[in-house]
Write a structure and sequence with these properties.
With about 325 residues, the protein is of the alpha/beta class. It has one domain: NAD(P)-binding Rossmann-like Domain (Rossmann fold, 3-Layer(aba) Sandwich), CATH 3.40.50.720. About 45% of the residues lie in helices and about 15% in strands. Helix 1 packs across helix 7, helix 6 packs parallel to helix 8 and helix 6 crosses helix 10. The longest helix has 21 residues. The structure holds nicotinamide-adenine-dinucleotide and 2'deoxy-thymidine-5'-diphospho-alpha-D-glucose. Nicotinamide-adenine-dinucleotide (NAD) binds next to helix 1, helix 4, strand 5 and strand 7.
Length: about 325
């Protein structure tokens, strides 16, 4: 199988490319990535020598390049997106451009080239916040942020291309991922690396917002399950079943690193901050997938990875991220 992975130089995409290359010895992967601030070729250094892997720098909004790389592909897995909620609040335009228009460009090319699988990587955030209970794939979309609205816009187009043109589409909506190679703007890597650097941990509001955490390897296995066994036209939620408050996560990170809770700095809440995400994953489980990692063990492994790979994140934190952090949190 020849798979076009878009956004494969980002956090989840790079973990997915690594999984596919090691799990399927006869598969070929082309990785199309624009290398925005979040894209990093160092995430896939180990794949560079693999003859079955090819990287191409390019924009999913660029029709010419997308058509060029789509030729001869059996499947497309679209991870490419602007992915950070806080950045979408500060400046939504890129989110609409990439997550909505970029998805359209990919769908058109997939239709033209007759690919046999188009898998859109979406998010549990498209359902919005839920106080009690869990969302199934049938629930209506009620996104709260420019980010989640742009992802919902992508999903709507994917569904329309299935209904109108019969494109064999699939959508996965996963919960919050964590693990190696996650850009340190997201809460878990930000708090691990800040604690390691002796910086405060900026916790939004009262810290009681809830997210369902999934180890990135489990999400990648879920995406692979849907890619191979999912039914065209269907949507699959992929969650870890680990609903935790942000305060719990923060204290756990400090405990693992042996740092004091006085490093927590309560800061102003995120605008439109969703209180809780929760998804029902029985549909993907019926395909034979289950998360394999225990949350506490996977968090410990993740902390170990950031301890062992300072070379990876120190470069990021002193680069583009430094200005972003100053703007966002008002300090260096
Ligand atoms: P990320 O920000 O780490 O990576 C995104 C990648 O997309 C980067 O490599 C970037 O260079 C690339 N990209 C951005 N715009 C592009 C464009 N116009 N053309 C080509 N490439 C472009 O994101 P992530 O956390 O790995 O998320 C990957 C996908 O999973 C996204 O679609 C996101 O919405 C979704 N998702 C993420 C999470 C999570 O917890 N991180 C959870 C659910 C869903
Ligand atoms: O639910 C899936 C989504 O998870 C993905 O679709 C997004 O791409 C991904 O970024 C993530 O979105 P969140 O907004 O949930 O993740 P983030 O790490 O930004 O924030 C997690 C929680 O932690 C959220 O309630 C806000 C809070 N937070 C975050 C940061 C960065 C803080 O309290 N302080 C912080 O500095």
């Amino acid at each position: 199988m020849k798979i076009l992975v878009t956004g494969g130089a980002g956090f989840i995409g790079s973990n997915f490319v690594r999984l596919i290359l090691s799990k399927y010895p006869d598969y070929e992967v082309v990785n199309l990535d624009l290398l925005t601030y979040a894209g990093n070729l160092e995430n896939l250094r180990d794949a560079e020598q693999n003859e079955r892997y090819r990287f191409m720098r390019g924009d999913i909004r660029d029709e010419a390049i997308v058509n060029e790389v789509m030729a001869g592909m059996d499947a497309v897995v679209n991870f490419a997106a602007e992915s950070h909620v806080d950045r979408s609040i500060g400046g939504p335009a890129d989110f609409i451009q990439t997550d909505v228009f970029g998805t359209f460009v990919l769908l058109e090319a997939a239709r033209r080239h007759g690919v046999s699988r188009y898998l859109q990587i979406s998010t549990d955030e498209v359902y919005g916040s839920i106080e009690d209970g869990t969302f199934t794939e049938e629930d209506r979309l009620e996104p709260s942020s420019p980010y989640s609205a742009s992802k919902a816009g992508g999903d709507m187009q994917v569904m329309a291309y299935h209904t109108t043109y019969g494109l064999p589409t699939l959508i996965t909506r996963s919960s919050n991922n964590f693990g190696p190679y996650q850009y340190p703007e997201k809460i878990i890597p930000l708090f691990i690396t800040n604690a390691m650097e002796g910086k405060e941990l900026p916790l939004y509001g009262d810290g009681m917002n809830v997210r369902d955490w999934i180890y990135v390897a489990d999400n990648c296995e879920g995406v692979d399950t849907v890619l191979h066994r999912g039914e065209p036209g269907q949507i699959y939620n992929i969650g870890g079943g680990n609903e935790k408050t942000n305060l719990y996560i923060t204290k756990k990170i400090l405990e693992i690193l042996g740092k004091p809770e006085s490093m927590i700095r309560p800061v102003a809440d995120r605008l439109g901050h969703d209180f809780r995400y929760s998804i029902d994953c029985s549909k993907v489980k019926a395909l034979g997938w289950e998360p394999a990692h225990n949350f506490e063990e996977a968090l410990q492994e993740t902390v170990n990875w950031y301890l062992d790979n300072r070379w990876w994140w120190e470069k990021i934190k002193s680069g583009e991220f430094a200005q972003y952090y100053q703007r966002q949190y008002g300090e260096k």
